[in-house]
Fold this sequence. Notes:
Layout (H helix, E strand, L loop, with lengths): L9 H24 L6 E2 L2 E8 L4 E8 L4 E3 L2 E10 L9 E9 L5 E10 L8 E2 L3 E9 L47
Antiparallel strand pairs: 1-5, 2-3, 2-9, 4-5, 5-6, 6-7, 8-9
Amino acid sequence: MGVQVNRGGKIGALAGLTMLAGSSVAGSAVAQSEAPPQKIENPVAVFSGLDKITGRIINFDVYMGETVQFGALQVTPRVCHTRPKTENPLTTGFVQVDEITLNNEVRRIFSGWMYAASPGLHAVEHGVYDIWLTDCRTTSKVPPPEGYSGPPVAEAAPEGVDTLAGPDNGSTTIVAPRPKPFQG
């Protein structure tokens, strides 16, 4: 009594083609129904900068189109995208970085995309300074520059207020949940 195995016969080939065709139809149906991930355009890019001489790391906010100087570098974000909280996080920004040389000349040392999830991938590495994108935000404690015309800035929550806690109606009474109906 032996087990019979079909190795490449007509039946095996036909079954394989049927399975392949079925999976490609199902795969294309899924691909057609999926919408591309939504990008949120933010008005503020958050950077970290390292001064290699002092060893100090500084976090700073920069509005889109605004130029901020960090040591001898000038950082100008052009766009900063995030995804909705329901999607996989992906924070990207298109950034231009210029260096002010000892002769007081401005020289572009970086122009490209930075990814917050992979700071070492496209960070600016300079002899004295390093800069990388850490986040994009809709608010900042720093007021927007005069004449700012980028994406709308959301109103910041007051200091010490937890925006995820829900509305505070001033009541200190704890409300017990309603009992569930009997399940039988």
